[in-house]
Amino acid sequence: MTGGLEGYDEVAEANAQKSILDIHWSRICARLKAEVGEVEYNTWLRQMGVGPVDEDEITLYLPTRFLRDWVRGQYGDRLGALWHAEIPAIRRVELQVARGPSPAADGDASAAETGAPSAATPPAMPVMDAVVVEEPRTAEVRSDLAAPLDPRFTFDTFVVGKPNEFAYACARRVAERPSSPGFNPLFLYGGVGLGKTHLMHAIGSELVREGRVSVAYMSAEKFMYRFIAAIRSQSTMEFKEQLRSVDVLMIDDLQFLIGKDNTQEEFFHTFNALVDAGRQIVVSADKSPSDLSGLEDRLRTRLGCGMVADIHATTFELRISILEAKATASGVEVPAKVLEFLAHKITSNVRELEGALNRLIAHANLFGRPVTLETTQDVLHDILKANNRRVTIEEIQRKVAEHWNIRLTDMSSARRSTVVARPRQVAMFLSKQLTSRSLPEIGRKFGNRDHTTVIYAVRRVMELMEQDPAFAEDVELLRRMLES
Ligand code: ADP
Ligand code: MG
């Protein structure tokens, strides 16, 4: 111990952080070396050293400006992707020239542990070491302009069965050889919770891991918000350029763009520019291109021009395989009887199936008790009940309209008087609570209203229930009637 030394804690912490970075760094160096070969590695990369992390950016040092520029041009994106794969929070790499003691030197314990070349590992130096810096500039990881990829959603964790094997094969193919003719765009469609987002993230992660291309993934909603924000801040040119500079653009849940004409138009142009430049597009939606009424015809036509792959509802066999895989990964023993029971009872989608299993596993871990059929029925009684009887939005609308004595058509009418607006909000609230429909789907069933209207309705009903016990009782009563 270095007891009594002033500032010890800070130095110790900085060193601990540094040695964690070193472990990642030695792995990255090992990969780089394997990728580029020994000669190239020793020529350009060996002298690189790791600096501090600041939020989403890590600084790397090179001893000369020439080396810095070369590495930035040749390996900037790759370094970004490798760091991002090691530490997802890191999205950018800043390359700086650091004079003084060369940050790279031989020998470090962590290198031996990870099997990385010791020459690649810089010595543990305090993170805050003063360095002389010239012209800081940033090499960006392209995923930066989009949403991050969920590291759990990979091809390895995707369970393949009859209903999804075609979509899976197409996704794999695109990840292996983006922009192949016939697979561009790749259009994945299917119901909620069947694995569309999972497959898109898997494509993205695979490509980023391979470091071959820059990938941007975002929901159609996010695309729209970013586009609108760009218009507001008068930076549409920048937005367009950013999007058009990626190699692979993935837009999830395209049905969000229905009725959003300007955004559709922008997406159409981005789409064309990227495809014409030989870049890959991957799109998901809840319906096939031809069934997505409300999309502009020319966009619909182009979307159907590449590969269209649907994910069908799960089969009993697939549900069992998925449950088995997830149970094994969790390390908790779940008897086959319980898995079969779940696969019989929860047929809606994989998300719900997964949610039920997760709850069982959490329960088992928390109380240290084995999972049995009895505990399953007990722990999941609410989910099982909801799955026993699937309430539809139409039923909810009917019951709520009857209760408040309004016409069923007012559920989708444009009338705004409280007499009809309030029951309509309650029906939206109950649809959200009792069905697995998404907000946009619910909005559509209520006279093509926007999903933000549904969000507002849910909030408003919750507020009112708190303020007004009689109203709360009404809603509770309706809920119980619909559930039984
Ligand atoms: P979607 O985007 O089609 O609504 P998601 O991709 O979000 O559905 O999937 C919902 C959940 O179910 C995710 O946690 C996902 O990992 C899981 N999932 C879906 N299909 C599979 C599958 N075939 N194998 C493993 N997990 C799956
Ligand atoms: Mg999704």
Would you write up a description of this structure?
- The chain contains 20 helices and nine strands.
- The N and C termini lie far apart (66 Å).
- It is an alpha/beta fold.
- Residues 1-8 and 100-144 have low confidence and may be disordered.
- It folds into four domains: 2-114, DnaA, N-terminal domain (GMP Synthetase, Chain A, domain 3, 2-Layer Sandwich); 140-311, Rossmann fold; 316-386, Helicase, Ruva Protein, domain 3 (Orthogonal Bundle), CATH 1.10.8.60; 393-483, Chromosomal Replication Initiator Protein Dnaa, Chain: A (Orthogonal Bundle), CATH 1.10.1750.10.
- The longest helix is centred in the first third of the chain and has 29 residues, at 8-36.
- The protein has helices at 8-36, 38-45, 65-86, 109-114, 165-176, 196-210, 220-232, 236-244, 261-276, 297-303, 316-330, 336-345, 350-367, 373-379, 381-388, 393-404, 418-434, 439-445, 451-467, 469-483, and strands spanning 49-54, 57-62, 92-97, 137-140, 186-190, 215-219, 248-252, 280-285, 307-311.
- Residues 196-197, 252-253 line the site of magnesium ion.
